[in-house]
Amino acid sequence: MSITNLETQFTTLRCAYHLERFPSLATRLDRLRRIRAMLIENESAWCEALSEDFGYRSADQSSFADITTSIKSVNHALKNLKFWMKAERRTPDLSLRMSGAKTYVEAFPKGVVGIVSPWNFPINLAISPLVSVLAAGNRAYIKPSEATPATSALLEKLISDYFSEDEVAVACGDVDVAQAFVKLPFDHIIYTGGETVARHIMRDAAENLVPLTLELGGKSPVIVSSSADLAMTAKRVAFGKYFNAGQICIAPDYLLIDAERLEPFLSELKSAVENTDSSQGSADSVSIVNNRHRQRLENLVSEGESKSGRVIKLSGNNQSAYELTVVIDPADEAGINTSEIFGPVLLIKTMGGLSEQIAYINKSSHPLVIYYFGRSEAEFRRVACETSSGGLVKNDVIFQYANDDLPFGGVGGSGMGKYRGEYGFKEFSNSRAVYKSGFIDVSGFVTPPYTDVFRMVNKLMRKI
Ligand code: NAD
Question: From the CB of 217, is ligand 1 less than 6 Å away?
């Protein structure tokens, strides 16, 4: 895709927005249904493309994680859009209310929204924002990841089969295309990916004052309380590392546990992994996306080991090459303490006591999610009130994403803005404040000359 083509395509979308600034409910529902049809009617093609891009990716996992999750988001929007689009009445100030004034907030489309999506769930992380963007009545322009070329090419083809080029368009290409893409004068951009690129995008978007939603990653901790069920914790954490081979922004990154419970936990983790046949070569496995990421993970582990970390490799039940690697207590300067892992490697840090664990979490930027395993509501409340993160989960991992009625996003270093469900509809809408004056001309009251009545009412207004 050349830069000129990017601009031409963008202009096509922008002109269409100007011609239809407020698509009806029926038009929006039709667009959402076409997303659903595009997903369902091409499911095997999607799964094949994903597997080609990853080297191998279980078709069942792709079907669930990329297709079903996206369809669920469409269904949720289809069911609720009518209510989201309703104007919300607001109470006017008492003095204006007495004059018969009315106030409400109504959501209007922002215009053309850019979606920059990553490789780890290349369909869902393009389609899930698209659902919110189209529900809010916008036009959409998607820049999918160059790290998954087969899936991105299929997305480009199928979007052009199911949508006209002035509704939704896709721009495939390398980083130079991505850089030019985010310089376009969008009405909003949603970017999902790493923090370094997010800083570039923010600088570029600032030139045109383009509002941003940034869905970033980071290190999501697991707090293992002294009241935690270790078998359950181990099973769920192991799942979080195996699913998509741990290449998930909300995967548990590191685990905090007191030293006495480390060995019992490792033994439970070993059993949990042995009971999982998610190893490479199995029909249900997922590969590391490319050699660059495999090498990155190997470096994190070997550096952690060389910096006094204990390393354990736990294998699935067919004893294949694919393993969950656990790195325990490397020295503070090891990169694994600060870099997002994003793969089937778990960092464990032994540290007892909730206060110490909370203090450790608070030393770094706010994570995308904090996982707490334990039975204590009081402890869970302490974690809620004494930390900050995009999401907070008790006794589970990852399944918070299965809820379309919850906002999704980070805070601070893990991102800004939230989307999905009604939160996505609002994120990509211009919530317009509407005021309709009443039957009394209030401007006459505040126009000079000012009288004693004016002065008395002015003082009274401070009391109501
Ligand atoms: P990536 O390399 O696929 O890049 C993401 C997108 O950014 C791609 O579309 C790419 O073309 C574009 N891009 C690259 N360089 C650019 C530039 N200079 N200017 C503009 N756009 C550019 O993905 P990644 O960054 O490797 O993704 C992994 C990261 O994403 C991890 O940190 C992960 O935690 C995070 N992530 C976050 C979420 C979330 O929802 N919060 C979801 C998935 C992944």
Answer: yes
